[in-house]
Amino acid sequence: MKVTSISLKRTYGNYQNIGMSADVEDGEDVSEAVKKLESVIDQQINSNRAVDQATSDINILNHQSNCLKGDVERLEERKNELVEWFKSKGPNIDNYNNLPF
Question: Measured over all CA atoms, what is the biggest interatomic distance in the chain, rounded to whole angstroms?
Answer without folding.
Answer: 98
